[in-house]
Amino acid sequence: MRADDLIRPALDRGQPALSEYESKKLLSLYGIPVAREKLSRSADEAVSAAADLGFPVVLKACSPELMHKSERGCIELNLRSEGDVRKAYGRIISSVDLELEGVLVQEMVSGQRELVVGLTRDPQFGPCVMLGIGGMMTEVFEDIVFRMAPFGKIEAKDMSEELRFKAILGAFRGQKPVDMDLLCRTLIAVGQIGLELDTVSELDINPMIITPEGRVVAADALVVLRRDVK
Amino acid sequence: MIESIEASPLYPIANPKSIALFGASNNVTSMGTSLLDSVLDLGFEGEIYPIHPKENRVQNLKAYRSVLDLPNVPDLALIVLPTRIVSEAMDACGRKGIRHAIVISGGFKEVGGEGINLEKELVAVANKYGMRFLGPNCIGVANPRHKLNTTFMAFQGAPGFIGMASQSGSFVTQMFSYLSDYALGFSTAFSVGNEANIDIVDCMEYLSASPDTRVIALYIEGIRRGRAFVETARSIVPKKPIVALYVGGSEAGSRAGLSHTGALAGPDRLYEGIFRQSGIIRARSVMEMFDICWMLGSVPRTKGRRVVIQTNSGGPGAEAADACGRAGLELPSLSPETIKRLSPFIPRTGSISNPVDFTFGKNLIDYFSEIPKALLDEKNTDILLFYFFMPSRRLERMMKQVGLPPDQITEKTTKLVDAYSESIMRLFENHDKPFVGYTFQNLKDPLVRILIERGIPIFPGPQRAARAIEAAYRYTRLRGKILAAVSQEAGVGQS
Questions:
Q1: Rg (CA), chain A
Q2: Burial of A165 by CB count in 10 Å (0-12 exposed, 13-18 middle, 19+ buried)?
Q3: Residue A73: predicted pLDDT
């Protein structure tokens, strides 16, 4: 699969953005680690996906129209059994009145440390990559830094050193330091997306969870499309 | 990057041998007249040709009806005319064969509306003849070594080592006197105006190649060629530091987007990252920008951020230690060897730790010689921060007390001050560690004045000194980062 195979059909359907499922597929193409997940279209499919992934799981309504899910009651966290999954599936279907691409069944990525990684386009500097403290508190801490793409590993590492709360990237309450090499490769890859894909106008990975072992995993992602590009 | 300074389009603009001047007259209140006055006042040594439709002489110079009538082709046209006739003058310059201009006149893009079209027209005329120009809506250039000052303010002070490119003309002209108070000055300063043709990136390239420029200062409200800016800065920073003040958009100006990233990408944060990526040291005020320039242009590159403080009194030492701590600097302990070396010079009332406190030592010369020498040799530290109190008044009083006649007091005081300054200069010149001073005295005090005129940075108060030291350390780190990236890329290229 190529990036265009994801983006073209979405543009043809008039989508303003890729769905979460499509967004993460795009990230995977660029080597960015994403949560394991399957798209289900029925409660039975969701249950079997959960069994494949292993409990606990997360269920999320999946649609390109849904850009900010947490406030709309369409995420169900920490589902530990078949029964949990079946009930959660029902609640999501009844609470969201959009036409859904499906319900996303996702491994429950553990980790208390959350980053945000993103892409924005500046009229003068072109594609710029953001790194920050992520999760629910992104706007509270506003601890974010930017670099113009492209850049190498040394610059990517310097981004992490510019964060005020960079201490969470080190060994933290019994959890391992972040895999800096993997984080740097992720930041560089986000810049590559900006440089190579004119059709991507902006991008969020939030949260990018740091697991207790120090891996980074994209737990949620949003790729916003630009429709004015040929 | 340009190969040599002569290859820069700014070279003829900053170093012209002859100038055609549009807009000067015998009317003393006109801007063009005061501009010609500035040029003459600094003693420009080349030819000046005023172009005036009616006058035969302008300020005692032969005036010409048209640029086409000039006996030869000037290197530079200086244009201070009403907006609507600027393009016409530019076209005449093009026909004459002039290839470089400074357009001082305003009323172009910066006012919107018709001004936007007038600027496009001006650019088109320049392009037609392959002309390069600074402006419009700028105040031009000050290159005091070339005795060129095209700003309408008289130049003050002496040439220095700060190369500046500014998106505000005032931060060129209003700084002449400010800088001379610190015995600083511009090597060359450009006011870039609307950057319709030559922009701030061109200025950076010129200043990078300028042998008189040790440090580059930028005042920025917005960068137009973003990607070229970053690449150019990264290629300059390994050899010359760049200090920038950015006061662009507020966070409220951030672009509305569908993503969090777009919403968070306010211009201030974006520029913060861009500067760090470019290896540029960001200053928080104009004064801080020049403090950092002073530091970086005067002392050797610091290897680290470990500071040792020398004072003659507890309070100024404690305050300096506090200022260093707040600026993120370290105050290491002295090694046993240094402590041993210092003990003969420090009285029992003093303190041999960090800060080193001399109090009232017997021989004042030790304060300016043996003690700082030992501290510069100290292996645990990277920088000496030295407190200057006012010794001359104290010396005068002491000599009066022992009954010396008044005429001898002045002479002896001068001799002692000379001895202290010579001693400090020897240390300053013979050590590869930064020596930085701070004081609460007037910078006109004899000892301080002698030393700043000989190139030692002595900051008013320890906070300014500490922040300048921190900035110097930042330069060391940013430079190291860029050099590491360059060698990594080269390594990847080979493999």
A1: 17
A2: exposed
A3: 73
Any A CB within 8 A of B43 CB: no
Per the CB < 8 A criterion, the answer to whether B266 and B242 are in contact is no
Q: How far apart are CA A170 and CA A177, in angstroms?
A: 4
Give the dihedral of Cα atoms B100, B105, B107, B109; nearest 10 deg.
30
DSSP H helices in B69-147: 86-96, 114-129
- The CA-atom distances, in angstroms, between B387 and each of B112, B308, B361, B438 are 53, 11, 15, 5
Number of residues that make up chain A: 230
Measured from the Cβ of residue B449, the count of other Cβ atoms closer than 10 Å reads: 17
Residue reference for tokens 């304060």? B367
SS3 B154: coil
| B280 contacts B471 by C-beta, under 8 angstroms | no
With a cut of 80, say whether residue A67 has pLDDT above it: no
| Domains B5-296 and B300-474 agree in fold | yes
Distance of CA B257 to the CA centre of its chain: 38
Task: Determine the residue among A67, A69, A125 to mutate to test chain B binding: the one whose Cβ has the most chain B Cβ atoms within 10 Å.
Answer: A125
Q: Which pLDDT belongs to residue B252?
A: 46
Q: Is B487 on the interface with A (CB under 8 A)?
A: no
**Cβ–Cβ under 8 Å, residues B292 and B473:** no
For domain B5-296, the CATH architecture is 3-Layer(aba) Sandwich (3.40)
ipTM: 0.93
The amino acid sitting at B252 is: A
pLDDT one-digit tens code per residue, B168-215: 988 998 899 999 999 999 999 999 999 999 999 999 999 999 999 999
Q: What percent of chain A has pLDDT over 90?
A: 84
Q: How far apart are CA B404 and CA B399, in angstroms?
A: 6
Q: Which secondary structure element, helix H or strand E, spans residue A141, and what is its range?
A: helix A138-141
Write down the mean pLDDT value for chain B: 93
Fold of A8-17+111-225: D-amino Acid Aminotransferase; Chain A, domain 1 (3.30.470)
CB contact under 8 A, A142 and B273: no
